């Protein structure tokens, strides 16, 4: 690993003392035994520190990575991919720690903790001596190391793009290695880097316009040259450069000699942080003496799988079981309706006097709310936040459950054929506070579908579209907590054409006590 950009630590507050060691402890552990993966040590520690933002937690994560690598050397697929394999282990260790902290388990580590509070909570077995309180000089040195990881030009990238940029630019991983670390195809990794490069170049153009100092609006935005580029300020600067002729010309002059945006790699010299080798060696010894160490689940190529993907797979299997039951109910709905009509009873178990299902001719169900169609609930995510593939960001957790029932399956199915009209099959399943609708088109013609609802607090990922015969689409109906009524509530979602109706019931916002 290239370490030409690293700065030598201050001898008074070096790497050993920067992790809470007294001078005597630092002298005793000054010469740890050599590490098997010594060339990659600084890069791995820098990656863990950039994700976890805490020196002690990053040290423990690096120790866990080295311990797993020593226990499972045969998992490395090839010597040419050893560096990528180690970075994949570091990514697994960081995600696992953040997941534990989010779930509130014992031994969790905060992923975004200030240095003053970094040593307050430790995992079982992660012992610190009574005299390991760090001095203000150590705190200042740690803040300086974290500041060296800042990259203002990448302020406009998404968390996924930023992670790919860090691995490709700061750690010099090639596209095949990056794809192996992220667990994506090389083409996807290449597209991710190209999009990130475009955002970095837009930020550079905005900063070039700021440096000219000829626009009073830019001076007001940057507080007379005191520029601390955040994501919000970067968005304002880029928007201003796009709209201001003077700043746009300055940005064009600055980028006239540059290649086409996104067509080449990003040339930036980003430093690494020196790993505290004595502290890492001590953490490895504590890991060996403590509880049973965690071991990742490896895929067929020998790389660790993302813990979030395993949780998502369990959720998909659980949702598939619920969906199977609901589909069976939809298939049996016409027979139940015929039996109920023959007996003179209400359809599908609805109590007498209850409202009937929504039909396509109902005019009292607004397809829009305040002139706007239903939309997906928005949420701004962060870095490596836990996610569930297939569900939108911000999906409410299991604490906000809803119950779902298809109360009208629409008209009976017509025979398939080239000239047969298109028809729509609706399946519904709950997932925490989200209702998952699956629309499947059949017949001999495309189907133009549309969602309508009588509840203004429901939001849908999509409200209309067209499906070719045999195609299907999965929709997510979520609850807007800002407009959700207090107490239990019922709601209905109609799917046209066909008049299928899905009944949704929720707990509602807790009533104030």
Characteristic key phrases:
single chain, 513 residues, alpha+beta, five-stranded antiparallel β-sheet, four-stranded antiparallel β-sheet, 11 strands, globular
Textual characterization of the structure:
The structure is a single chain. The chain has 513 residues and is an alpha+beta fold. It has two domains: 17-292, no CATH class; 317-380 and 396-506, no CATH class. The protein has helices at residues 23-28, 41-52, 55-71, 82-103, 136-148, 159-170, 175-182, 186-212, 216-221, 231-243, 245-254, 277-289, 307-343; strands at residues 368-369, 372-373, 402-408, 423-431, 434-442, 447-453, 458-460, 464-467, 472-479, 489-496, 500-506. Strands 3-11-10-6-8 form a five-stranded antiparallel β-sheet. It has a four-stranded antiparallel β-sheet with strand order 4-5-9-7. The chain is globular, with a radius of gyration of 28 Å. The protein starts with 22 loop residues before the first helix and ends in a 7-residue tail after the last strand.
Strand content: 5-15%
In total, how many beta strands?
11
**How far is the first residue's CA from the last residue's CA?**
60 Å
Helical amount: 25-40%
A few lines on this structure:
With 513 residues, the protein is an alpha+beta fold.
